[in-house]
C-alpha cells in the first residue's frame, strides 16, 4: 500500500507539474491585484475574453446577465477573517445548511467531511470545483471537503435553486461551487496558528502559492502547496463532558477503569457482574464512562498540491488544464474495546475464576457440590469431571487504551480542455477530467472474537485449550482494571485490521454557448443560449481484510464490511435559454425569462428528463423580483444499489420490551414473544450503550427519486440608500419516491403503537436469542430492519435573506453583512403509512443533526487606514426534544430543551507593509459553553460528550494568529 501511495503521489506530482508546464516559461511576475467580489461570476468560457462571464447557476455567457437563481457568496476575504482551515468548517455554519460529518464528529467519522444543504442529505447536493464535478470519496458518491484547496479559493458560490439543468439532475438541494483564483501573479505565503484557551486543539496551517503571467499576458500559471495539522481535543479535558451522562436517568456513567466482568442471562441470577472486590457476583450493572477517551476535535493532517495553467494559442482559442492532489489523514479515537454480549465458553477450572464466583455459577447451573468441586480441578476436556459454562459476557479491555481508526485518503484529479470562439458571439468549451480517491482505514486496539474465544477457554495461565492458534495467551476476564497483562493484550488486540475504499470519476463535457445574434424589440440584450452534452463514469469499491469482513469478528466494530464493487455511467444532453423580454420600459426596467432542460440516461436506472423555468422582473430601478421552478431527479448511487446486507448499530436507549413493561400486559408480552424475547419477559435489558442492532443493505430494485423545487424572492438596492442591498427568497423542495430508510423510531412505532403480535411490522424485529434484547452478536441478533426503498418523502421550505451595507464614514469604512435563514419545515416520511416526522427545531435519535428554525450570521467590519476590526455574530435558535421521541422515552426535564445561543468572534487585521499582513483573532470570544442534554438523546455521530458538538462550540475560547506575505 505504501508503494501504491508513492506511485500515486509521483503520478499526481507529474500531472500537476504538467499543469504548470503546459505553457511557455514564466515571464516577469505581475503584482497581484486586490478587490472585492460583488457578483456571482466565473471566468470566461471562451477565448479569454474578459467581458464574457458565466454566472453560477447558468451556462450562458453574458456580461449583463442577472440570473433568477439565488446565489450566496462566501469570499476569500471572509475566509481570511475566519481563518478557516477546511471548507466544511465554514459551510456547516451557513444559515440554511445543517452540520454534517466533519471535524466535530468522532464516532461516525469515516475520514471525510461533507456538506448538507437544507438538511436533505449530503447526497442531494453537488460539490464543484470551478464548475466541474470532483471525484467522490466513497460508495455514496459524496465529495470529501477535506480535499478542497482552501488557499486557492477566490470565492464559494452556494446555489440553492435552479441548478438541475446547469450542473446535474441530482442537484436537488443545490450546488456548492468553489471558484479558484484565476490569473494569479506573484507569491502568497500564509502561516496560521490556532490553540484553545485550555491549551489543546493546536492547529497549524501553511500555504504557498506562486503564479505568473507570461508571453505578454497570453498565459498564466499558478502552483500551490499546503500543509495542515490539527491536534485532538478530548472530552475528558472539559468539565461538562468528563463524565458520560444518561439523558433518561441524569446519572453520570461509571468509572472509566473499574470494569468488572458482566454475565448476562445467568440462570437464577439474571444480569450480574463481579463486585468491586472481584470475589462474588451481584445483580447489578454499572454503565461504563466512555467520555474521557472520546474527542471533540478529530486529529487531522493534510498535504495538498494544486496547479492550473491557461494559454491563448491563437486569438480566440485557449487551452487550459488543472491538477489537484491531496493526501490527508483523519483519526478517530473511541473508548476501549471489549466483549459486548459475546457468548464465551469458560471452563469452571479457568485459573482466573474466583472461587466464590465459581460456587455461585455452579448453583445457577444446578451442579452439586461434588460436581462443582470436580469441575474446579478438571483441566482436561476429556476428564469426566470437566465442565464449562457459557453466557453473553461483557468486559471493557481498558488496559488496551482507546480504539484507534486512522483514515488516510489519497486523492488526485486532472482536468484538461480547450475553449474559444466559434464566431464573435458564440463560444465553445470542451474538457475532460479524471479523478481517483483511495480511503484506507486502519484499526487498532479492537481485538478479535476468534482470539477472545480461544483465550477464554483455558484451564491454565500458560496455554489455551483446543486453540487453533499456538500463540494463544489465556485471558483474565474476571480481574479488576489492570489484570489483563501486556502479553494477553498482545495476543487479543495485537492485530491491526484494514479496509480500502476506492472511487473513480471520469467526465467529458462539451458546451456551446453565446447569443442568437438578435434581441426582442423591447429588449436591449440578445437572447442567450447554451447547449451541450456530458458523459460521466463512476466506479466504487470497498475491499476489507478477512477479519473486517467477518460478522462480529472485530470486537466493538459494529457492522462487518464485506467487499463491494459497483459502477455506472450517465449520458446527458442539456440546453438553456435566457430571453430578455424588455428593458428600460415603463414598469419594466428589465424582464427576463430563463428556460432549461436536461436529459439523463443512467446505465442502471434508465432515462429521465429534468427541466427548469424561471425569470426576473425589475419593475423599477433598484427592485428586482425573481423566481424559478425545477423538476429534478436523483438516481441511486453505488452504495444504495450494491451494498450487501449487514447488521450494525444505531441509537436506542429504551427498549419497549425491557424490564417490567410487558409484565401483566398481555398484548405487549405477545409482541415481545413474537420477536424472540418470550423466554426473558421481565428480564430484558435496554440496549448496551444505548446502541441497538439494525440490519441495512443496498437494493438493486431502487428507482430514481423525483423532486420539485421552486423559489421566489426579491433583490432591493435602493438608490436613496447607497451601499445597501437586501435579498429575500422563499424556497420549497418536495422529494417523492425518495430513496430512504426508516428511522429506528419509525420501525418501533409501527409495531408498538397499535400493532399486534401477528403484524409483520412487529415480527420483522428480531431479538437476541440469548437475552431477548435488541443488542448482541450480529450473527444471531438482526435487531431492527432498516430497509432501503423508494417509499420515502422529504419536504422542506423556508426563507433565506441577506442584508449588506457599506458606508464611508470619513475616518473609516464600515461594512455590515447579515445572512439569515428561517426554516418553516423539514419533514421526513419513511413510508406512505409512516409518521411524517418534523425535525425543524427538534433533536432526537430520529432527527440526526440539529436544524434550528432560525439561524443568523452577521459581521461588522470597521476599516481605519491599514487596520480592520471585525466582529462576527452567529445566532442559533432555541430547539427542543422531538415530541414523538419524548412521548416514547422519559428524558430528564433539564435535557428536553436548548435555549437560543449566540457566538461572537473578534478579528483584527493589520497591514504592516505593502507585503505583510498580520491577523489576530479570538473565536468564541465570550467562551460560551455548550448546552448539556446528556449523551443518549440523539444519534452517536452528533450527540456526543453530553452535547451536540457539530452545532454548538464544545472547544471554548480559541486564539488564532496568522501572517501573510504577498509579493
CATH class value of the domain at 2-235 and 296-335 and 405-443 and 500-635 and 704-743 and 786-966? Mainly Beta
So what's the oligomer here?
Answer: single chain
**Average pLDDT rating:** 90
Low-confidence residue ranges: 1-55
Rg (C-alpha, Å): 30 Å
CATH topology tier name of the domain at 2-235 and 296-335 and 405-443 and 500-635 and 704-743 and 786-966: Maltoporin, Chain A
- Decide which structural class fits the backbone: mainly beta
Helix % is 10-25%
The dominant shape is elongated
> Strand count, sense and closure of the main sheet?
22 strands, antiparallel, barrel
**CATH architecture designation of the domain at 2-235 and 296-335 and 405-443 and 500-635 and 704-743 and 786-966:** Beta Barrel
What layout of secondary structure does this protein have?
Blueprint: H1 2-21, E1 71-75, H2 76-82, H3 87-91, E2 125-129, E3 132-133, E4 153-159, H4 164-167, E5 174-180, E6 186-196, E7 203-214, E8 219-230, E9 233-234, E10 262-266, E11 270-274, E12 281-282, E13 295-297, E14 300-314, E15 317-334, E16 338-347, H5 355-365, H6 369-377, E17 388-396, E18 403-423, E19 426-444, H7 449-456, H8 486-492, E20 497-515, E21 528-544, H9 546-549, E22 564-585, E23 588-602, E24 606-620, E25 623-634, H10 638-642, E26 646-651, H11 666-677, E27 691-696, E28 705-716, E29 724-740, H12 744-752, H13 760-763, E30 784-785, E31 789-808, E32 813-829, E33 836-838, E34 842-843, E35 854-864, E36 867-876, E37 879-881, H14 883-888, E38 897-898, E39 901-911, E40 916-923, E41 958-966
Parallel strand pairs: 2-5, 27-30, 34-37
Antiparallel strand pairs: 1-4, 2-3, 4-5, 6-7, 6-41, 7-8, 8-14, 9-13, 10-11, 10-17, 11-12, 14-15, 15-18, 16-17, 18-19, 19-20, 20-21, 21-22, 22-23, 23-24, 24-25, 25-28, 26-27, 28-29, 29-31, 31-32, 32-33, 32-35, 35-36, 36-39, 37-38, 39-40, 40-41
Helix pairs in contact: 5-6
Amino acid at each position: 500500500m505504501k508503494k501504491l501511495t508513492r506511485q500515486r503521489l509521483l503520478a499526481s506530482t507529474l500531472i500537476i507539474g504538467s499543469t504548470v508546464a503546459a505553457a511557455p516559461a514564466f515571464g516577469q511576475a505581475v503584482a497581484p491585484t486586490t478587490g472585492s467580489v460583488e457578483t456571482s461570476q466565473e471566468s470566461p468560457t471562451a477565448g479569454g475574453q474578459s467581458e464574457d462571464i458565466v454566472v453560477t447557476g447558468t451556462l450562458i455567457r453574458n456580461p449583463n446577465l442577472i440570473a433568477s437563481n439565488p446565489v450566496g457568496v462566501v469570499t476569500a476575504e471572509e475566509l481570511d477573517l475566519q481563518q478557516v482551515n477546511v471548507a466544511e468548517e465554514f459551510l456547516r455554519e451557513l444559515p440554511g445548511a445543517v452540520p454534517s460529518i466533519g471535524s466535530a464528529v468522532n464516532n461516525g467519522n469515516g475520514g471525510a467531511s461533507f456538506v448538507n444543504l437544507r438538511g436533505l442529505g449530503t447526497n442531494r447536493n453537488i460539490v464543484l470545483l470551478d464548475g466541474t464535478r470532483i471525484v467522490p470519496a466513497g460508495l455514496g458518491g459524496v465529495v470529501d471537503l477535506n480535499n478542497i484547496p482552501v488557499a486557492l479559493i477566490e470565492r464559494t458560490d452556494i446555489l440553492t435553486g435552479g441548478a438541475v439543468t446547469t450542473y446535474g439532475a441530482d442537484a436537488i438541494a443545490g450546488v456548492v461551487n468553489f471558484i479558484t483564483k484565476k490569473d494569479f501573479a506573484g507569491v502568497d505565503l500564509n502561516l496560521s496558528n490556532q490553540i484553545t484557551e485550555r491549551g489543546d486543539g493546536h492547529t497549524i496551517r501553511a500555504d504557498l502559492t506562486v503564479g505568473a503571467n507570461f508571453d505578454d499576458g497570453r498565459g498564466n500559471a499558478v502552483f500551490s502547496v499546503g500543509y495542515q495539522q490539527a491536534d485532538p481535543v478530548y472530552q475528558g479535558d472539559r468539565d461538562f463532558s468528563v463524565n458520560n451522562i444518561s439523558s433518561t436517568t441524569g446519572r453520570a456513567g461509571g468509572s472509566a477503569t473499574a470494569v468488572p466482568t458482566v454475565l448476562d442471562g445467568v440462570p437464577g441470577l439474571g444480569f450480574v457482574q463481579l463486585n468491586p472486590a472481584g470475589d462474588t457476583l451481584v445483580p447489578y450493572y454499572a454503565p461504563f464512562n466512555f467520555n474521557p477517551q472520546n474527542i471533540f476535535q478529530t486529529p487531522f493532517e493534510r498535504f495538498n498540491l494544486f496547479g492550473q495553467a491557461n494559454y491563448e494559442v491563437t486569438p480566440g482559442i485557449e487551452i487550459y488544464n488543472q491538477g489537484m492532489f491531496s493526501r490527508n489523514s483523519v483519526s478517530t479515537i473511541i473508548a476501549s474495546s471489549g466483549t459486548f454480549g459475546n457468548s464465551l465458553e469458560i471452563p469452571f477450572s479457568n485459573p482466573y475464576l474466583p472461587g466464590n464466583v465459581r460456587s455461585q455459577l455452579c448453583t445457577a447451573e444446578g451442579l452439586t457440590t461434588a460436581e462443582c468441586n470436580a469441575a474446579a480441578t478438571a483441566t482436561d476436556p476429556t476428564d469426566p469431571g470437566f465442565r464449562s459454562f457459557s453466557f453473553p459476557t461483557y468486559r471493557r479491555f481498558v488496559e488496551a487504551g482507546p480504539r484507534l481508526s486512522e483514515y488516510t485518503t489519497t486523492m488526485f484529479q486532472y482536468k484538461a480542455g480547450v475553449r474559444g470562439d466559434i464566431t464573435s458571439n458564440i463560444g465553445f468549451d470542451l474538457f475532460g477530467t479524471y479523478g481517483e480517491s483511495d480511503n484506507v482505514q486502519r484499526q487498532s486496539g479492537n481485538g478479535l472474537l476468534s482470539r477472545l474465544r480461544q483465550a477464554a477457554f483455558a484451564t491454565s495461565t500458560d496455554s489455551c485449550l483446543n486453540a487453533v492458534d499456538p500463540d494463544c495467551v489465556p485471558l483474565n476476564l474476571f480481574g479488576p482494571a489492570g489484570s489483563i497483562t501486556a502479553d494477553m493484550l498482545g495476543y487479543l488486540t495485537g492485530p491491526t485490521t484494514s479496509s480500502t475504499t476506492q472511487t473513480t470519476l471520469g467526465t467529458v463535457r462539451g458546451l456551446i454557448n453565446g447569443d442568437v445574434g438578435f434581441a426582442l424589440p423591447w429588449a436591449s440584450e440578445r437572447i442567450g443560449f447554451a447547449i451541450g452534452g456530458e458523459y460521466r463514469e463512476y466506479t466504487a469499491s470497498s475491499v476489507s481484510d478477512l477479519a473486517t469482513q467477518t460478522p462480529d469478528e472485530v470486537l466493538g466494530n459494529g457492522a462487518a464490511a464485506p467487499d463491494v464493487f459497483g459502477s455506472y455511467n450517465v449520458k446527458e444532453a442539456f440546453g438553456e435559454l435566457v430571453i430578455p423580454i424588455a428593458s428600460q420600459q415603463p414598469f419594466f426596467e428589465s424582464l427576463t425569462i430563463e428556460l432549461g432542460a436536461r436529459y439523463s440516461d443512467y446505465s442502471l436506472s434508465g432515462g429521465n428528463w429534468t427541466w427548469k423555468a424561471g425569470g426576473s422582473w425589475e419593475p423599477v430601478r433598484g427592485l428586482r423580483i425573481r423566481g424559478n421552478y425545477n423538476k429534478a431527479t436523483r438516481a441511486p448511487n453505488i452504495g444504495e444499489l450494491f451494498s450487501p446486507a449487514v447488521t450494525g448499530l444505531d441509537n436506542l436507549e429504551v427498549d419497549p420490551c425491557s424490564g417490567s413493561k410487558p409484565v401483566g400486559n398481555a398484548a405487549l408480552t405477545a409482541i415481545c414473544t413474537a420477536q424472540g424475547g418470550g423466554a426473558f419477559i421481565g428480564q430484558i435489558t435496554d440496549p448496551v450503550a444505548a446502541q441497538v442492532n439494525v440490519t441495512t443493505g443496498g437494493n438493486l430494485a431502487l428507482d430514481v427519486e423525483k423532486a420539485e423545487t421552486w423559489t421566489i424572492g426579491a433583490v432591493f438596492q435602493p438608490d436613496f440608500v447607497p451601499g445597501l442591498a437586501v435579498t429575500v427568497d422563499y424556497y420549497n423542495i418536495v422529494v417523492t419516491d425518495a430513496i430512504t430508510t426508516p428511522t429506528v423510531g419509525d420501525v418501533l412505532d409501527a409495531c408498538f403503537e397499535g400493532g399486534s403480535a401477528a403484524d409483520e411490522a412487529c415480527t420483522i424485529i428480531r431479538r437476541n436469542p440469548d437475552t431477548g434484547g435488541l443488542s448482541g452478536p450480529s450473527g444471531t441478533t438482526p435487531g431492527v430492519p432498516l430497509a432501503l426503498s423508494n417509499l420515502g418523502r422529504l419536504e422542506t421550505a423556508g426563507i433565506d435573506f441577506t442584508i449588506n451595507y457599506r458606508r464611508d464614514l470619513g475616518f473609516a469604512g464600515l461594512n455590515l453583512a447579515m445572512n439569515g435563514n428561517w426554516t418553516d419545515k423539514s419533514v421526513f416520511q419513511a413510508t406512505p403509512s409512516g409518521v411524517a416526522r418534523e425535525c425543524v427545531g427538534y433533536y432526537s435519535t430520529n432527527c440526526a443533526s440539529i436544524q434550528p428554525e432560525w439561524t443568523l450570521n452577521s459581521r461588522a467590519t470597521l476599516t481605519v487606514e491599514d487596520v480592520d476590526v471585525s466582529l462576527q455574530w452567529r445566532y442559533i435558535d432555541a430547539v427542543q426534544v422531538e415530541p414523538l421521541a419524548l412521548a416514547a422515552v422519559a428524558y430528564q426535564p433539564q435535557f428536553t430543551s436548548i435555549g437560543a445561543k449566540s457566538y461572537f468572534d473578534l478579528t483584527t487585521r493589520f497591514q504592516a507593509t505593502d507585503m505583510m499582513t498580520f491577523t489576530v483573532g479570538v473565536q468564541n470570544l465570550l467562551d460560551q459553553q455548550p448546552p448539556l442534554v446528556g449523551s443518549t438523546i440523539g444519534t452517536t455521530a452528533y450527540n456526543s460528550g453530553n452535547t451536540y458538538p457539530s452545532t454548538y462550540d464544545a472547544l471554548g475560547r480559541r486564539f488564532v494568529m496568522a501572517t501573510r506575505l504577498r509579493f
